[in-house]
Amino acid sequence: MEQFIRDRVVTPWKLGDIFPESEAVSPTRRDRVPTRYLGIGGHWTRYWSSTDAPIYPFLKGSGGLFSTAGDYARFLQLWMDREAGDGSKVLSEAAFARGLTPASLEIMSTGFPGAVVDYGQMWMLYRPRNAPEEIFAFGHGGSDGTHAYASP
C-alpha cells in the first residue's frame, strides 16, 4: 500500500511532503513531524516524538501518513478538480465518484447545524440531514485531532 500511494498519488500529484509514519524518524523528515500527546482529564502525556521508533513500522490503512497543511490542501484541491494542475488524470472518474458517494449512512452529528456525516470509500461526506445525495463538503477527521474539509 505504501508503494502504491507513493507511485499513484504522491509522485504524480507532486505531493512531496506527504510521507508514511515509518519515514517520520528519518533525518530528512524528523524536524517536520510534531510530537504526539494524549490528553485525559486535562493532563497531557507525550506518547511519541520523532526521536522515537515509529509506532507502526508500516503504513496502516486507517492512518499513518504525515503531511504539511499545504500538501494536504493541494490533495483536497486535486479531489475537487478531479485532476492534477497540469490536467493529468491520476484516478478514473469512477474512482472519484466512489470516493464521494455515501457508502455507509452513519448519521453522525457534525459541527455544521442541520448536517450529518456519512462515509464514502475515501472521505467523510457532509450533507443536510434529510438529503443523502446533497454532499456540500468532504474531508477527514484524524485520530490525532486533524480536521480538513473541502467544499466544492
Spatial separation of the terminal alpha carbons: 28 Å
Q: State the low-pLDDT regions, or none.
A: none
Order of helices and strands: HEEEEHHEEEEE
Structural class of the helix and strand makeup? alpha+beta
What's the average pLDDT?
Answer: 83
Q: Count the E strands.
A: 9
Indicate the proportion of strand residues: 25-35%
Output the strand order for the largest sheet.
5-6-7-8-9
Helix content: 10-25%
Please, how many domains? 2
Shape: globular
The radius of gyration is 17 Å
| Biggest sheet character | 5 strands, antiparallel
Number of helices: 3
Please explain how this structure is put together.
19% of the residues lie in helices and 28% in strands. It is of the alpha+beta class and 152 residues long. It folds into two domains: 1-67, no CATH class; 92-152, no CATH class. The strands form three sheets. Strands 5-6-7-8-9 form a five-stranded antiparallel β-sheet, covered by helices on one side. A two-stranded antiparallel ribbon has the order 1-4. The protein has a two-stranded antiparallel ribbon with strand order 2-3. The longest helix has 13 residues, at 69-81. The mean pLDDT is 83.
